[in-house]
Amino acid sequence: MRMTDAQMYARVLASDADYDGRFFTGVLTTGIYCLPSCRARKPKPGNVRFFPTAEAARATGLRPCRKCHPDDFARGADPVLESIEALVREIREAPAACADARAIVRRSGFGTTRCFELFRRHFHATPAEVLLHARLAFAQRALLAGDGGVGEVGFAAGFETLSAFHDNFRRLTGLTPAGYRALRESGTTSFTLGLPDDFDLPYLRHALGRDPEGRDVHLEGDNAFVAARLPAPAVLHLALAPDSVTVTCPAGTAVEAHRVAAGLLGLAQDAGAFARLARRLGFARLVAHAPGLRISLTPTAFDGLLWAIIGQQINFPFACRLKRRLLELCGTPVDRGMIAPPTAADVAQLEVKQLLPLQFSQQKAGYLLATAQLIAAGGLEIEGLRHGSATRAERTLLAVRGLGPWSVNYLMMRSLGFADCVPLGDTGVTSGLLALMHLDERPDVDATRRLMSVFSPYRSLATAHLWMLNRTVP
User: Fold this and answer.
1) Which of 136, 243, 319, 435 has the fewest CB atoms within 10 Å, i.e. the most exposed one?
2) Based on the domain organization, do 139 and 256 belong to the same domain?
3) Each residue of 453-464: pLDDT tens digit?
C-alpha cells in the first residue's frame, strides 16, 4: 500500500532504518535529500517532500545528504559502515596496535562524538569495549595455539599490566588465563567458572528451567543439563553454586563446552553498567529485583533461529510444545533421554507435510524449512553474523523471508549476543513499559522505539528486565 505523507513523516521522526530505500526525504529549505533513518536535525513537515527514488530527488535539484549518504545506500553501498567494519577488523587482528580508545578515534578519521556514535550504532559497543573484547579474543587464540608464558600472551594482546589481563580475562570468561589454556588438554572433562559478585543465580535457573519438559535443556534443582553439539551431540552438566558453576563435558570438547557455558551464563554482558544507567534515569525499580540479571544465550545461532520462527505470534507453552516435537522429529538423541537440537541440514531435509500433523501452521512450516534450506545451501552464514557488525547482521536477517523486526532482534539479542536490540511488537516489552512508566495505554511500535531509546546501548538487557518486571521473583 502507498504510504501517506503523514506516515512517511512519522518514519522520519522515528529515524526508522527499516524504511531506508522505500522512500527518500527532501528538505526544501536546505536543498538536500536524506534517508528516513538520517540522524540530522528533523525538518518541519511543511519543508518536506517525499520521493520514491534518489534519482527523483536529484531531478528536482536537491543534493544528497553528507551525513546519511542516500545515494550510496540506493546503489547498495554504505561507505561509513564499511569503514567502521574495516577498522574493527584491523583492531581484532592486531589489538596491541591500538593503545586506547583515543587511538581508535584517530584512526577512524571521525571526530570523537561521531566515532562513538558509529561504534554504538553498528557494533553496540564503545571503541574501548570493542578493543577490550578484541584483546581477550586474541589472548584466547594465543593461549590455545602456543606455549608461551601467560604474561607474554597478555602483553602481545595489548594489556599494559598482568593484573589488568588477569582481571579482565577472569571477569569475562570465568577462568584465569592458565585455566583457559588447560581446556585444550585432551583429558579435560570438567572446569569451574567463577561468577561475578552481582550474578543472579535464581534468574539463570529461571532461564534454564522455563520449559519443565524441555528435551534440550533440563533443570533439576542446582543441576542443569544441556544437549548441544560440541561439535558432536553431547550433554553438558552444569552444577550451579552461588559463586561458581562447574561444567562437566566429554573429553576433548572442553574448549567448545566453555564457549557454550559462558554464553548460557551471559558472562560477557555488562549487567552492572545497565543497572547504573537504569538508576541514573530514575528507573531503579526496573533493576531492583535483579541488578545482575544477564541474558542466557542459545548454544548456536540456529538454535535461536528455530525458536524465533516457532515462537512467532503464539503463546509460550504452545511454542515449547512445537519445539519439543521438532526435536523429536529430527534432533539427535543423547544421554539422559535428551535430544540435541537439529542442524540446518537436518531441518532442510524435512517436508511441510511432516510438520503439519505436529500442529505447525502451513506458513510457519514453510518459513522454517525455507530458512533451513537457505543456510544448508550456504546462502546464509548465520553463525558468522556474531563476528560482524550488528547493522550487517540486522540487514542480512531482515532480507530473509519470514523474519521480521521482532524475530531478527530476538535472534540478535538471544543468540548472537548483540547488546542494543529491542524485539519490537513484543507484548512482554510493552507490558513492562506500561507498568514501569505508568502509561495510559500500551505503546505501539513507534512509542516503544522512542521509550526504549533512553536505555541505549543496553536495550537488550532492558528488554530482559522488562520481561521480568512485576513477575514473581524466582
Assistant:
1) 243
2) no
3) 999 999 999 999
